[in-house]
Here is the input.
Amino acid sequence: MYKIQTLNAISDIIHTQLSADRYTVSKEEPMPDAILVRSAAMHEMEFGRELLAIGRAGAGVNNIPIDRCSKEGIVVFNTPGANANAVAELVIAGLMMSGRKIADGIDWVKSLKGKGEEVGKLVEKGKSQFVGAELRGKTLGVIGLGAIGSIVANAASRGLGMNVIGFDPFISVESAWSLSTTIHRAASEDEVIAQADFITIHMPLNDKTRGSFNGEKIAKMKDGACLLNFARGELVNTADLLAALAGGKLERYVTDFPNDELIGAEKVVCIPHLGASTPESEENCARMAAAEIRDYLEKGSIHNSVNYPELQLGEPEAVRVLVLHENIPNMISNITAAAAKEGINIENMVNRSKKDMSVTVMEMEELPSKHALDTLAELPGIIRIRTFTRE
Here is the structure.
């Protein structure tokens, strides 16, 4: 029986993946085999040696101590794309609000409360201050053509009649196939920035991208362009952005990540981080995270891990030994030499690596002795060894 701890309220949809005859799921589980988490902070948590995996029901993993998990042999999963449709729909709404002064107009209408029969005349008299441009025929630049960016690009091109230009140096084959043939793929980010009337950014936050939308980059944008940020607030340099809005370089900024400087600022529309806040999205993320945890616990299969390599495995042929280790020279030869010395006959072997971490899978007919496995575990660079047998 596997024990799963939940750190946040997780949709009951997880039970479609974690059957009651094999899993116990509890908030209070003191010694879990795996943890399911949404936004709970885990950096100060202590992990027992029995903890094998953490499943993040969402894409961002800033709340999880990834480096420590890697060193302790804890595989961390996330759910990229599970909330893509929810976020993409909000981006389209943001696109509408950037072209038309919808949010400003709604706020203004509220000020007319109590005017009685005058409301109609006041609306007609005052609406001109909220005039905005249509999207059809305008150019949308999409920076980042992953799960969310590709949906936005297709919707804008096919449904809104926009000219769409996109850039993503790391586009996946799956995303590339999903894109409409009407979308132009730019050779550089600067090419997108120079041509677009509206720019939406869908890139990860890291040391290279933090604050990358700064004054220098904004200066390359078209005068009067609108910028949308539904990825991470820290991607945009707030001071440079506000200066560009005040000086007329940018017409509007729409973001799902408010901060104190942005709230109430002229030409800024702040949405309270609603991107993935739909019941459908929460269910998709929970289901996907639970399935990833299940496949790893039961078979050793790794899909959508942020710290260990992709490793798609079926049921064990007979006995499977999974070795998590550092990605350092001679590890494979050391493992096979130690296995041979202990009389372990390897029938099939697979190795996969991701940055500093590696996984080696050995299929065999018989389960090695405890002594043999302990000997393998003592090799320098070995982090964790797991065994599986066909049921």
Q: What stands out?
A: The radius of gyration is 26 Å.
